[in-house]
Design a protein that fits this description.
Number of domains of chain A: 1
Radius of gyration of chain B: 22 Å
Number of strands of chain B: 15
Number of helices of chain B: 7
Largest sheet of chain B: 9 strands, mixed
CATH architecture of chain A: 3-Layer(aba) Sandwich
Shape of chain B: elongated
Oligomer: heterodimer
Number of strands of chain A: 13
Distance between the termini of chain B: 61 Å
Chain lengths: 255, 307
């Protein structure tokens, strides 16, 4: 089974700082593999363990994205492909087009996995666009995958239902984080990851011709959370009373 | 400017209708509400009801195909889609089929120049981004960001698109139990996090919730990692977004992904034994202390007042 996993190298939202005007300090900000992508890598490794085959990690991003790729390789993936592109000048459609081109070039793959959304922007558009662009069956928000033979059976986690779907291989899917618990690579795996093959491709090699105008972020500002931040400390009876008083005063407790 | 408001869910379609109506009147244009059922639950003067031999309601693939066929004929300039999980898939597929750009989870939409402008949460809600999408385009609207327009008595115009080719087959659907948990509409939520040491101790949380007439929620570790509560209790970026009058976070540290789902709460209160827990930074009221002592004390206090 030939498996591709699309991962994103993202600015670490927890570490991101803003300046005094509330603008994010994106240059030089700490970055990491997008949180939920680890679940997609993990699911690919489980499919590989069950069916034999190999796992290719594909990412579109800056050179630093090699860090995320190495992490996925340390988890157990076999090789990586980096499409070097400036993430700020490319939108979800552009990303999906580049991923589709890499998948077509290196394929055919039996399975293409993504996570439900990236931990930075969380648009959730790239996986279904990828399915549509590749003309393959697509399953979104998958919490369980089974590939008993030449077809896949998945469970999708929706707001009000769990849907069961089937389609023949090859397919594209996005997984939800509840699907598995990602493994931690061992020290030896981390050291060996650097020796695994990593290919770099320029986007110009993959796509030519005119592209639709991208959807762009024109500005970003810190979100003001105007909260009172009153903290009660002391004996439980006393703090409980103060809290209940405060909440009664707000009129948010049932009478 | 011709705007379409679409969702497979009538309530989300009517929220999109509210946004579409605003855009239509500001541009001197018109809007239509596009739905999949019989159209009686939909708002608006102009309603289009897509009909097909394919299962449009359960297959986002079929719904996107149907919508694209109808849109190529009626030529709207802008299609707003309710940002449900299926809605995002429909919008993304539709954008590719139409050759249009797409944005997701936007709110506060306006028109400026030849673009749709809107806001969206990024970096787990730490920042708000302004986004500009060149028209024609597709955009998904953050669920709950517009009050839905009321259903109108106008009959929907049926539009039969025939059979839509699909690659994926829907073979089963298990509806989640209704009424057991309705966090989205809850006025009061008590939510548990990792500070709760074992599954049995969740009784303390559910007892407090029932004393207050509220619902029980949790942070991601309790549902996804421990499996102590079903996934529909999970509040946060990858779970449910809530907007109660009171959100009481018990033993929840307040990671960004969790906070992203509780921002719209009127009052946020927290009980935590870690003074540096980020939850206190986003709370109106906090109690620093051991939840195993504080929650029983709150119960006692509430019971004494009710007497």
């Amino acid at each position: 089974m030939k498996i591709a996993v699309c991962v994103k190298h993202a600015v670490d939202e927890a570490e991101l700082k803003v300046d005094s005007s509330g603008s994010p300090l994106l240059a030089g900000a700490a970055s990491k593999m997008s949180t939920f992508d680890k679940n997609a890598v993990e699911e690919a490794l489980r499919l590989k363990a069950a069916h034999a085959g190999d796992v290719t990690i594909i990412t579109v991003g800056p050179t630093e994205a090699k860090k995320s790729m190495k992490e996925a390789l340390a988890m157990g993936a076999d090789k990586g492909v980096l499409v070097t592109a400036d993430p700020m000048s490319i939108d979800t459609r552009g990303t999906a087009e580049l991923l589709a081109a890499v998948i077509k070039k290196g394929g055919p793959y039996d399975v293409v996995l993504c996570s439900e959304g990236s931990s930075d922007v969380y648009s959730g558009l790239v996986p279904p666009m990828l399915g549509e662009l590749l003309g393959l069956p697509y399953f979104g928000y998958v919490r369980k995958v089974e590939v008993p033979g030449q077809s896949a059976r998945v469970e999708r986690a929706l707001e009000d239902s769990i849907d069961v779907l089937e389609a023949p291989l090859p397919f594209v899917a996005s997984v939800v984080s509840e699907i598995n618990e990602p493994r931690y690579p061992t020290l030896i795996q981390i050291m060996q990851a650097g020796k695994k093959p990593m290919e770099e491709i320029s986007p110009d090699v993959l796509l030519s011709g005119s592209k639709p105008a991208p959807t762009l972020f024109t500005s970003m500002k810190a979100q003001a959370m105007a909260r009172k931040k009153v903290v009660f400390e002391g004996a439980p009876e006393e703090t409980a009373r103060k809290l209940v008083d405060a909440l009664s005063g707000e009129g948010v407790l049932p009478r | 400017m011709k705007v379409w408001a679409f969702s497979e869910s009538p309530s989300a379609a009517n929220e999109a209708a509210a946004a579409a109506s605003g855009l239509a009147s500001s541009s001197g244009g018109s809007y239509a509400v596009v739905g999949l059922d019989d159209g009686t639950g939909l708002a608006g003067e102009e309603k289009l009801v897509l009909k097909s031999a394919s299962p449009l309601l359960t297959s986002p693939e079929a719904a996107a195909g149907a919508l694209a066929l109808a849109a190529k004929e009626a030529k709207p300039d802008l299609i707003l889609v309710g940002s449900t999980r299926n809605g995002k898939e429909i919008a993304a597929r539709l954008a590719v089929k139409m050759g249009w750009p797409c944005a997701s989870d936007v709110f506060g939409v306006t028109l400026a120049g030849a673009s749709l402008h809107g806001k969206r949460n990024v970096f787990a809600g730490k920042l708000i981004a302004e986004v500009a999408v060149p028209i024609p385009c597709v955009a998904t609207l953050k669920v709950g960001s517009y009050p839905g327009l009321p259903a109108s008595p106008t009959a929907g115009t049926p539009k039969d698109v025939g059979q839509v080719a699909t690659k994926v087959r829907v073979v089963g659907r298990q509806e989640k139990k209704k009424g057991t948990v309705d966090l989205k509409g809850a006025k009061l939520i008590v939510a548990a996090g990792r500070g709760v040491k074992k599954k049995e101790d969740l009784a303390i949380i559910s007892d407090l919730a029932s004393e207050l007439g509220g619902a029980v929620g949790c942070s991601r570790p309790l549902s996804s990692d421990m499996g102590w509560l079903p996934e529909e209790h999970h509040i946060g970026l990858t779970g449910i977004s809530v907007h109660p009058d009171l959100y009481l976070a018990v033993g929840i540290s307040g990671q960004l992904q969790h906070v992203a789902g509780i921002k719209d709460s009127k009052v946020i209160a927290a009980v935590n034994n870690d003074k540096s827990a980020p939850i206190f930074e986003v709370s109106d009221y906090g109690v620093l202390g051991d939840l195993y002592a504080v929650i029983p004390a709150i119960m006692k206090e509430l019971k004494a007042r009710h007497r």
